[in-house]
């Protein structure tokens, strides 16, 4: 419920009410133009969600033209994208050309996009729920920067999510809510457009009060904006309490249907249900049909004064959820209709709306069409004076220096997972500026992914100091973790969606807060798939992070199939904005990690995924550094083939000992046999694909790296490919020069066992490589 706040300025209320009408019209017209006026060459419906826009225009008008501060950041519900474009059209940030091309190539995007839209977009949205949840993690990143002295407390902004109520069905929201409670997040607003209608149905009535309970339990303030000022005034009149009680008890579906039917239907229903209450009937009779319909739909989410009061009440750092009751399709001909989610006004209906607003034909795109000169001038001045119109100071984002090399851990036998931990530990002790910008995070697998030593050195991040009870009691433990504001590890619970949303928020710190962080997240390799939607979401926004996943494939051994990964190499190859490496040796890992820190900062860079292993393998001796350049391109010859050789073994990652052993076993039988170490199937395939596209689209048509590598072989040579993952990650190599491939890898779920048994069972041992090599020559 709302408490009394300082009365709002009537002129401000009137201006925002007028702007709300502009947003409703411009968003509706933008969608109408795309579907009914623009040439359709394929006959497909363009779409655009006019009803979902109309339910939130008042909320967005009050927020963007009054409540927002320059440092606030907003994730806008996906289906309200046209409203955001309309707002920036009024602010002068959006062009008419972009609006005309809404949902067309190069035009305004269907859903707000940081990377594809030309207007300022703080957080991309589209996959519902994720845009909500990331604001909780962005608020945590803001607190991290404040605690580390990179952001002044006075410059803190609110991380705001505008969500449709159907998004509250998304489980990742509650995972984020719980994690946010653990970390005591601040400065976070979630504003629910509570229109109680989704694509298929109306919201279950029994959920009315449950959301309040859930959020209050997690420490949030909940402000419910159910009734607008006009309703509250009517409720104070004789008979008003009965009408208020009727509204509170009206099923969602009934309320929606009556809204669509209009004033006469409202009158008939209220008169029948309140027949015994003479005062209520008299109050109902005091309104004509149009006035009664306006009263019954005067919900809090459509009342500017109510919205401004609510935003003013939450002017502190306490996380707040606003439940703003609204009508889906408010102010449009199909308001309340159960089919209005994807519904579109027809030409007659949009023309009726145009006429009701006094907009002349041909002036539909005019920002203030239908208004007199004085009113238009007043609104222009109001918009120009809004806090958001003053703009945000664009801070220069300084690059984080990266050492010329990262030290390679010593040891004749090493696993890449253990080497990763030692490289990070050495970096944390080095005093290099890079170490201070690294932030690590993990979903309760910090120890088992070898981050423990880094955390011992740099500490857990906590806004309030957290003592290590075991250390204080002098109980021996390898983990000496204390929590404090200077800590550089953010420990998360077991929820992979939260990991990837945390990485996305950290990876956007430069753009969001003006300070670059270099986040590293660790996870069990098979469980990338559990957070895949959030991983894709982070990459879509061009967030920059280093994902370290381990252990890979059946090489995990006794842990069994549930913890063994099969298709993660294909995820790494197929995910835009993410570059996948699978180093076999510690020196490859150090080289790749250094490259990753540069790539995460490059203008044309992105995020990086390292697929590591717990298997300790014998390290190779290097004659020189000549292999490094090729390794960073995706692969290099560990044993170069003789010119015109008829075969090569191609391997990736932990399976290196079997590939090397097989090479030694076969080199006498297959003269000139090559051994190719593919450090990144992703980069090799990407380069090959780009070269083919360039041939027809223009660009660099020089030979791809994989073509250069394979040209050392005879055109008729065969390839044995092997990876502890899906064989298709490497089997495509046969298409580069039309060479025969015998592909080894995982194509079924693993079982428990030791490595000799597992490698034999799944044909990953040196004997299987020998069999595969023989197969290359059987049909010749």
Summarize model confidence as the mean pLDDT: 93
Distance between the termini: 81 Å
* Major beta sheet, strand line-up: 10-7-11-12-14-13
The biggest sheet amounts to: 6 strands, parallel
Low-confidence stretches: none
Give the beta-strand count: 20
The figure for the number of domains is 3
Task: Please give the count of helices.
Answer: 34
Q: What's the architecture of the largest domain, going by CATH?
A: 3-Layer(aba) Sandwich
Q: Specify the helix fraction band.
A: 40-55%
What is the CATH top level name of the largest domain? Answer: Alpha Beta
The third-level CATH topology of the largest domain is Rossmann fold
Tell me what portion of residues adopts beta-strand conformation.
Answer: 5-15%
Task: Note down, in words, how this protein is organized.
With 780 residues, this protein is of the alpha/beta class. The protein has three domains: 12-228 and 299-385, 3-Layer(aba) Sandwich (Rossmann fold), CATH 3.40.50; 415-618, Rossmann fold, CATH 3.40.50; 634-779, Rossmann fold. It has 34 helices and 20 strands. The strands form five sheets. The protein has a six-stranded parallel sheet with strand order 10-7-11-12-14-13, with helices on both faces. Strands 1-2-3-5-4 form a five-stranded parallel sheet, sandwiched between helices. α1 packs across α4 (81-91). The longest helix has 28 residues, at 10-37. It is elongated and about 100 Å long. Its cofactor is Mg(2+); thiamine diphosphate. Mg(2+) binds at residues 165, 195, 197. Component of the pyruvate dehydrogenase (PDH) complex, that catalyzes the overall conversion of pyruvate to acetyl-CoA and CO(2). Keywords: Magnesium, Metal-binding, Pyruvate. GO terms for molecular function: metal ion binding; pyruvate dehydrogenase (acetyl-transferring) activity.
